[in-house]
Amino acid sequence: MKNHVSKTALVLGAGGFIGSHLVARLKKEGFWVRGVDLKNPDFSRSQADEFVMGDLRDPNICRQAVDQSFDEVYQLAADMGGAGFIFSGDNDADIMHNSALINLNILEVCQKIKVKRIFYSSSACMYPEHNQLDPDNPKTSEDSAYPANPDSEYGWEKLFSERLYLAFHRNFGLQVRVARFHNIFGPEGTWEGGREKAPAAMCRKVAEASDGDAIEMWGDGEQTRSFLYIDECLEGVLKLMRSNWTGPVNIGSEEMVTINELARMVMEVAGKKLSIDHIDGPLGVRGRNSDNRLILEKLGWQPTRPLIEGLKRTYSWVEEQVEQAVQTSV
Questions:
Q1: 315 included as an active-site residue
Q2: What would the pLDDT profile of 83-111 be if each residue is shown by its tens digit?
Q3: Which one is catalytic: 74, 120, 127, 154?
Q4: Which DSSP symbol is given to 5?
Q5: Strand 224-225 to 257-258 pairing
Q6: Does CATH number 3.40.1440.60 belong to domain 8-184+228-251?
Q7: Which of 85, 176, 271, 279 is deepest in the core (most CB within 10 A)?
Q8: Taking the model in full, what pTM does it have?
Q9: How many C-beta atoms lie closer than 10 Å to residue 329's C-beta?
Q10: Whole-angstrom Cα distance, residue 300 to residue 273?
């Protein structure tokens, strides 16, 4: 590492969607950045100054990754995916074991090496299922996390890891920052294969369809969600990281839509008239929306970009991927 660089950052999970975007953002700010992941980013070359290819479930890889006191450490590495992966029930043991092991390993080495500050990306999936049964009025204020009752093992692991980070903060003085992400989306995110989130899946289905076709959707489409564009996610992450507040805090949009509305928005962007074939499939909670009162109070900031803007950028990118896939298969 060059000695004249003033600030250093470590991004764990740098081969993933949010992690690769975060590396690019930190480089723009002049940081020297080391990325760590099992894989390179799927759709573009990492902009990290160094990229350690390794499995963070292995303590030796963690020690290799955290070999100095970085100014900022971002822990995004996890075994995760969309509803088709999280709610099938087939991946529960791997999700809990892999993600918890990563966090246990990382916190131990960060505490020993005395890193200056570490950010942990939790998820809105840790909120109680019983507060998210009404699609029109879900409750996700930060203080509603307990009594705990997440709807998935993914959510339970996130809740455990939140408590793990906060315990290291209390017992060892490790400066931690915890955010609960609400459905982050944008270009260069997974768009096929079962781990994709709803916006990317919807963009793919619409891009692959011709006018008059039907696209498939799990459930009746009246379940609600909010979706946050990647650029605003990063803005919230950096504001929290550089504040004097630990969290946990929601980082998400308050623009709640039904999945039917999401589909219609993507069709509008694409200029296509399609019908929807509602089928059985994993759904998650009935309603979820970010509650941004606390982040506005503590950081004086909240996301403001309309969903349609992010969908336009994301659809354009997914459409390119679909076209390339078609050309490759010919």
A1: no
A2: 666 767 788 999 999 999 999 999 999 99
A3: 154
A4: -
A5: antiparallel
A6: no
A7: 176
A8: 0.93
A9: 6
A10: 41
